[in-house]
Amino acid sequence: MSVDLSIVLSGEFGEWLLRGFLLSIELTLITLVLAFPLATFIALLRLSPWKPLQGLGFAYVEGIRNVPLLAHLMFWYFGATQLLPEGARNWLYEHDAETVCAIIALTLYTAAFMAEDVRSGIRSIPSAQLEAARALGFGYLRSMRLVVLPQAVRIIVPPLISQTLSLWKNTSIATVIGTAELMYQAQRVETATFRGAETFAVTTVAYLAVSCVITLIGVLYQRRYPVRAA
Amino acid sequence: MRILLALCLLLSAAAAQADQLDTVKKKGDLICGVLGTDEPNSFVDPKTRTIIGYEVDLCKAIAKKIGVKLTIKQLAVAARIPELQQGRVDILAAALTHTREREAVVDFSLTTFVTGQRVMVRKDSGITQLSQLAGKRVVTVRGGTQEPNIRRAVPNVEVITFETAPQALVALQQRKAVGFVNDEVSLLDAYGKLGPAQKDFVLLEQSISSEALALGLRKNEPAFKKVVDDTLRELEKSGEAERLFMYWYGPQSRLKYDKRHFRIETDKLT
Prior knowledge:
Distance between the termini of chain B: 41 Å
Strand content of chain A: under 5%
Distance between the termini of chain A: 61 Å
Shape of chain B: globular
Structural class of chain B: alpha/beta
Radius of gyration of chain B: 19 Å
Structural class of chain A: mainly alpha
CATH superfamily of chain A: MetI-like
Largest sheet of chain B: 9 strands, mixed
CATH topology of chain A: MetI-like fold
Number of helices of chain B: 10
Shape of chain A: flat
CATH class of chain A: Mainly Alpha
Mean pLDDT of chain B: 91
Oligomer: heterodimer
Number of domains of chain A: 1
Low-confidence stretches of chain B: none
Order of helices and strands of chain B: HHEEEEHEHEHEEHEHEHEEHH
Largest sheet of chain A: none
Strand content of chain B: 15-25%
CATH architecture of chain A: Orthogonal Bundle
Number of strands of chain B: 12
């Protein structure tokens, strides 16, 4: 059996793989857009001066990131959906529950990791900076906006880009709940063609290509906006 | 990646050179790949925690004929053919449907079971005919012939696949789909396990396919195939095949087949 990539790239099979690839990209982008604000919110909870809010943020981060993503997906798809009221449940099941549940699980999971990156970025700016700004007469919000956050962003963005890389790879696990992303379609093509080596070679290259683009963005960002000594 | 590919090719080439029957005899061990989740073909006996079943008994007979001991290895549906091709199992006894497409990559023994695939639907969906499934969501297991067959039978159906049949059944129970496509035997078994919930489900009468199940063998191993087929022929001739079928599928079993509608005699598709 010789290696022949054209079999899995042409016609119906190529179309399946392309559809899976696009859904994987879609999952990544939607999750990113939802997870970042959530992560910022969780980070602010953890940084708040009020203990119960800190505890809430802590519980979220530790509770979510210490459970494997596979368990999250199974929980949201097979478990949590059963707790919905019947009307909402039926609506969800008629509207691609597989993709919706994958986005929920990926968002909550990714946000837990991103929250820690945002939090440590803000914490890395010495408190003297805030105090100095306040001493110069800026209010708290203006001090944050003009002094602390511009410095923190440069520190936060590179780890967020590497979380995006993890997110991109993590979308592949959604195949277990029947989300028709790239890995799901690859298995479908393999079943139909018995061309395992070719199918997974193409799939690997697709994952690798997007990963390289994300890594490149990270490198370019750091070159353009290096972290400045505080 | 290229190195990995090259390595895989090298390994499969090396495996293909030696005669498989000699290799099995030399190592004294026949590795038989089964599903282990497919009662009564192969499943875990709750008492002994070992895998037993109709297909396991066929493997036992073959190992005995060759004169080696038997090792059972559990496989996922989608992993069956790759595991055989890469030489990690010697023979597949894993509810493997004999198809023309698969003939290009594996050889098949004599047909060991004849069945069809059917659809179990929720009663409240009001579906009584296959054609009513058009545009509806059905679930099934990944890596088998179920998905292509239901798409052929009902062109506009929407199919969602899972790693195992029990997961697909749970999705049906949770109303994530109106129908569950699977081999008739697995469906009858699942239906039997539903207990009081049976009243909410019904099996559609029409089959979506007629399937010949056979043992899967590595390609171009004539000596090995001959031993396997001879064993099966002897089982048929001695009445042992009939006895095994009745033991696992007959009126005393959960599936309650009243008689055997096939004989183990051919390795050709009709």
